[in-house]
Amino acid sequence: MRLKSLVGFCFLVFVPLAVAVGPNEACDLPRGLQSEISAKYSGAKLVSLEDLDGDDRSFFQKDHGDACPGSTKVDFYGDGKPTLALVLTTKTGAKEKAELVLAHQVEGSWKTKMLDTADASPVPVVWSQPPGEYRGVYGKKEIRATRPVVVFAGYESWTILYAWTGNRVTKIWLRD
Questions:
Q1: Fewer CB within 10 A of the end CB, N or C, for the chain?
Q2: Rounded CA separation 17/164 (Å)
Q3: Which domain covers residue 134, as residue numbers?
Q4: Higher pLDDT pick, 2 / 59
Q5: Model confidence at 176: pLDDT above 90
């Protein structure tokens, strides 16, 4: 009887710990997209919670829970087709860079487009926001987005917003 109690106790205590420290399933990409990213962005790694320092991880989780900081679903083009904004990091020598990539599934295959690059210190994150009116950091530029937008940010440093205007991607700096 004691053995059953001990096994039950261990299961209740250690299984949740293993799940909590395991890989972030929110960062799992669809199979076809994973192979497209591997082929087109060789050596690139999708940003995960483990890549963020303690403060940045706390900031991200406060606003986005256990979402993946390197991937967000967004109906960027307004066509209802699967679209993800991704932050991929690559290391060249001692320097690490981040790329913001938009992946759009069209007729069963994934098409990717690099929107921007940044230094990977701090490690940038991505999320989406609803359509709306967005004003740039200096108040000179404004975007009236009719579709959800993508936000690319390096915490305590910079934030850039990207919107589809129907024929091209427009960006504004929300924080510099």
A1: N
A2: 41
A3: 27-175
A4: 59
A5: no
Q: Which amino acid is at 110?
A: W
User: Dihedral of CA 34/74/118/87: which sign?
Assistant: negative
> Strand pairing of 45-46 and 71-73?
unpaired
pLDDT at site 13: 40
CA angle 152, 153, 159 (to 5 degrees): 95
Strands of the chain, DSSP E: 45-46, 71-73, 83-92, 95-106, 109-119, 125-129, 132-135, 142-145, 149-154, 158-164, 169-175
Q: What is the DSSP string of 140-161?
A: S-EEEESS-EEEEEETTTEEEE
The answer to whether residue 4 sits within a structural domain is: no
pLDDT score, position 135: 96
Exposed, middle or buried: residue 162 (CB in 10 Å: 0-12, 13-18, 19+)? Answer: buried
Give yes or no for residue 11 having a pLDDT over 90.
Answer: no
Q: Is residue 133 part of a domain?
A: yes
C-alpha distances out from residue 118 to 4, 9, 75, 100, 169, Å: 54, 47, 23, 8, 17
Q: What is the mean pLDDT of residues 45-61?
A: 96
The arithmetic mean of pLDDT across residues 71-98, rounded, is 94
Count of domains forming the chain: 1
Note whether residue 115 is domain-resident.
yes
20 found inside a domain: no
